[in-house]
Amino acid sequence: MRLEGDIVTPQGVISGHLTVEHGRIASVSGTPIESARAGEGGRPVLLPGFIDTHVHGGGGRDTMEAGDAIATIAKRHARHGTTAFLATTMTAPVGEIEAALQALGPVCRTRGPGQARVLGVHLEGPYINPDRLGAQPAHAIPATLAEVLRLNAFAPIKVLTIAPEMPGHLALIGPLRDAGIRVQIGHSAGSYDDGVAALNAGAAGFTHLFNAMPGLHHRQPGMVGAALAHGQHAELIPDLLHVHPGAIRAALRCIPGLFCVTDSTAAAGMPDGDYRLGEYTVQKCLGGVRLPDGTLAGSALTMDQALRNLVHTLGLDLVEASRRTSTAAAEYLGLHDRGCLAAGAWADVVVMDGGLQVQRVFVEGEEIDVVVDA
């Protein structure tokens, strides 16, 4: 298979073609052009498939439903250009988390037709601070290494969100890291010093930076201050509701490996209405997803819209926007054959028009059905 257009690579944009054999990119060739010229004259724009490390749901289904919900979620996000993601749990009784992970285990091993690749699990809770639940249900508990490893046996936990200031949690970060689990600081009431201590202990990044954590104050820098001063990696939700564009710009300047996530709920890719988020019912309205009291509860964001927000509102060029929606997350997860359009990588490709609307999507060389607006 041969795909032609303006190809976004980490080194810049080239106008040319790539070939695909046996689900992987066999070759990429072309002539360098300015990023701003990508898509001129009706040429397609080819980007690496988006990678999302924080997906609670989509297409009307929620990860915590277990059963076949993940297949619907994986199909819906693939239609918006997400070719790989982490299925993300909610804070819940441990038995419910076990049921969700048992359903996710087989899907992590085998990708279904028409679906994005489920790379593993992001366990967002229950090991968080009960004073910083955000939209998480009130089932926070202390973590133990034995329990996390037991859950990991059901489905591979690639990322775990933890509040490091809770008793015993700081000492767990190193052993979790050694077990191959990336610890992220989040849903935390911890101080700047707590954040620095967690990073020094081996924490890898921050969960949805700025949200559900103490903000920056010049005399009390808080967890955000720790991230901006010392963080190498962090998630950020660029739906323009969770974080002001000015704060996004600050994070982009400070955190080399900042990457975008959706924190998407069942409402992603769906019309306004009521949807499930763990044990809660949330409402999608005016582009956001909220609890009845108005608290933001995840998002309705998809990664193609995240890219458009970065380019059209934040002013990033395509190469930088692609890095923040794909390449940086792949690097964070240690994936050397995803997140870039290069020979040998999986053929995870999003084809967009000059307005950055999705036209075609390929997951590991398989073309996915997408709905293209007329």
From TrEMBL:
GO molecular function: N-acetylglucosamine-6-phosphate deacetylase activity
Keyword Coiled coil appears in the UniProt entry: no
Lineage top rank: taxon: Bacteria
Enzymatic class: hydrolase
CDD domains per record: NagA
Annotated ranges, domain Amidohydrolase-related: 45-366
Pfam families hit by this protein: Amidohydro_1
InterPro entries attached to this UniProt entry: Amidohydro-rel (IPR006680), GlcNAc_6-P_deAcase (IPR003764), Metal-dep_hydrolase_composite (IPR011059), Metal_Hydrolase (IPR032466)
Keywords assigned by UniProt, alphabetized: Carbohydrate metabolism, Hydrolase, Metal-binding
Transmembrane segments: none
E.C. no: 3.5.1.25
Family: Belongs to the metallo-dependent hydrolases superfamily. NagA family.
Protein name: N-acetylglucosamine-6-phosphate deacetylase
Species annotation: Pelomonas baiyunensis
